[in-house]
Amino acid sequence: MAYRRINQPKLSDVIVKELEKMVLEGSLKPGQKLPPERELAVQFEVSRPSLREAIQKLEAKGVLTRRQGGGTYVKQQLWNSLSDPLVELLANNPESQYDLLEFRHATEGMMAYYAALRGTDADHASMRRKVQIIKEVQGNHEEESKAIVDFYGSVAEASHNVAMLHLVLSLAPLLRRNIAENLELLYRREGSSEVANTHREALVEAILKREPEKARQASNDHLAYIEEVTLEVRREDSRQQRSLRRMRNDLI
């Protein structure tokens, strides 16, 4: 009987696969700096030349980037698939904001569902921290929108679905803009921030109790409330503008 030779994988290729896995899982995030080469070689228990070769391969793939005298980073543009001009176009179109809310109904509800099924204790602790940060920065729309996107990122991580995680990462600029605009409208309705906090707490509670359907429903209830309030505030603005136009016409 003839036996085929078993080819051992090249060590640098093994390192490449491990680093790619860390990027996919979100252990290495966009723009994050890798540990120094010597430290990383010790952690992987490999030689520095093999590690250096792996990093060069990932640079060629566009996954990592080196900064002169500043170390090696996960490439920021890896997730920036939505360009700034597109973000501006969508942000300046009121109708697209509701399209995005519909999209969020589907994706965030699904993330919540799987987070309730698969989330670990570490995931749960991360979500609790992110919810607390939202409360601490409430009132500052820019910081609050960033904190809310970070919270949804933690829900995506808890879903343990890399496609969902990277969808959130790629949409982060658009989500932050959408959420900031929603916050401006929500804060014009007294008590709306407290209601939003209650919705998020119900979402986290359902995930912690591993109740996927309740988690999905909590997510949908939250987004339905946002849509209802923002629509009503916009209608009020429209009515006021019509009244002002009539007043100006009466004065002419």
UniProtKB/TrEMBL annotation:
Transcriptional repressor for the pyruvate dehydrogenase complex genes aceEF and lpd. The keyword GTP-binding does not apply. This is Pyruvate dehydrogenase complex repressor. One of its GO terms (molecular function) is DNA binding. SUPFAM superfamilies: GntR ligand-binding domain-like (SSF48008), Winged helix' DNA-binding domain (SSF46785). Keywords: DNA-binding, Pyruvate, Repressor, Transcription, Transcription regulation. The keyword Transcription regulation applies. Pfam families: FCD, GntR. Residues 9-77 form the HTH gntR-type domain. It comes from the Bacteria.
